[in-house]
């Protein structure tokens, strides 16, 4: 019996008996995202019955139900955008570094955003959601670019240097954050609500601010699927096939930085979405990064919205911030990934 394979330069790995067909999986992913979106605008401290939700969506709803549903639109839309950005950024990170434990936090983006927020609050009088957004975005981008520059040497990207650069930069910035927040309690009060990660309290203005960066990053990521597949062959083989590994790696890391910075600036640091979703997609669809990027774009929002819904329902009428929920969900995913790596070693 022979095993059917595709040409490696096209990036599709061997077909496995349990692998889902991409078209069928795409339909399921779209249905799951639609269900998560509807649940996000229907569930919360006040649950909207299906019939009442339909009336609101068709413009014939009760005024109270209509006001509640409309208030959840920005939160849901931001969850979709942030989930897509974080999941795709994680997929790019794992594809470029060939490290299944890589996620956007490796680039020091969270620490960079946090540091600029703390410094702006302490010394420039920044306060409120708008100020946090505008100060966190350049900090996140600057940190990601700095880690990329340190991890790049003579046109090539070293995974070890990248990881070390991210760890060192995060350690330095976290020490700075602690020094400032401990000496200025009023700064800590402003910072602690952002650092956990949440979709609550954001409006469409936040979405419109980060949307151009997020859209550019997602489009670039979709275009990188085929070039990134060649990296699995090794740099020498990829070069022999006409690819440019150094340029592809740089583009992948810069795109991941852009996506993670946009999501982090809008919602605060939300862990494990970028780690768990790529593993799930890879287990379902195999190693083809074209499929991984597309399905991460769909499953990331579903997972983030589901976590946000759980946080709203667990402590109703209060709520648990989504960053805490994803940490509880993502920790088992990390353990599973580590165990799988040990079995494959």
TrEMBL record:
Belongs to the binding-protein-dependent transport system permease family. FecCD subfamily. The lineage of its organism: Bacteria, Bacillati, Actinomycetota, Actinomycetes, Streptosporangiales. Keywords: Cell membrane, Membrane, Transmembrane, Transmembrane helix, Transport. It comes from Actinocorallia libanotica. Pfam families: FecCD. InterPro entries: ABC_BtuC-like, ABC_transptr_permease_BtuC. It is found in: Cell membrane. The chain crosses the membrane at residues 76-93, 105-126, 132-150, 162-182, 258-281, 293-314, 320-338. It is a multi-pass membrane protein. This is Iron chelate uptake ABC transporter family permease subunit.
């Amino acid at each position: 019996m022979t095993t059917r394979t595709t040409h490696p330069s096209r990036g599709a790995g061997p077909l496995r008996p349990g692998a889902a067909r991409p078209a069928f999986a795409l339909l399921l992913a779209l249905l799951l995202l639609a269900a998560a979106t509807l649940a996000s605008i229907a569930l919360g401290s006040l649950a909207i019955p299906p019939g009442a939700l339909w009336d609101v969506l068709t413009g014939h709803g009760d005024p109270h139900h209509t006001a509640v549903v409309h208030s959840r639109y920005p939160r849901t839309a931001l969850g979709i955008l942030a989930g897509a950005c974080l999941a795709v950024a994680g997929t790019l990170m794992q594809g470029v570094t060939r490290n299944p434990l890589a996620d956007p936090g490796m680039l020091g983006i969270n620490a960079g955003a946090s540091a600029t927020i703390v410094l702006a609050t302490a010394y420039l009088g920044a306060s409120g959601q708008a100020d946090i957004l505008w100060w966190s975005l350049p900090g996140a981008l600057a940190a990601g670019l700095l880690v990329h520059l340190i991890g790049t040497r003579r046109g090539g990207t070293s995974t070890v240097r990248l990881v070390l650069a991210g760890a060192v930069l995060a350690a330095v910035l976290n020490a700075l954050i602690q020094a400032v927040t401990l000496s200025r309690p009023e700064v800590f009060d402003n910072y602690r609500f952002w650092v956990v990660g949440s979709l609550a309290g954001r409006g469409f203005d936040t979405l419109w601010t980060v949307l151009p960066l997020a859209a550019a990053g997602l489009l670039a990521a979709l275009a990188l699927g085929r070039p990134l597949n060649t990296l699995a062959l090794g740099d020498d083989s990829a070069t022999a096939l006409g690819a440019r590994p150094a340029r592809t790696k740089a583009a992948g890391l810069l795109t991941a930085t852009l996506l993670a910075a946009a999501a982090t600036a809008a919602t605060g640091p939300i862990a494990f979405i970028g780690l768990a979703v790529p593993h799930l997609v890879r287990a379902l669809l195999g190693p083809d990064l074209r499929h991984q990027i597309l399905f991460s774009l769909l499953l990331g929002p579903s997972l983030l919205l589901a976590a946000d819904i759980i946080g709203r329902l667990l402590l109703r009428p209060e709520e648990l911030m989504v960053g805490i929920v994803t940490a509880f969900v993502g920790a088992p995913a990390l353990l599973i990934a580590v165990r799988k790596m040990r079995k494959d070693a």
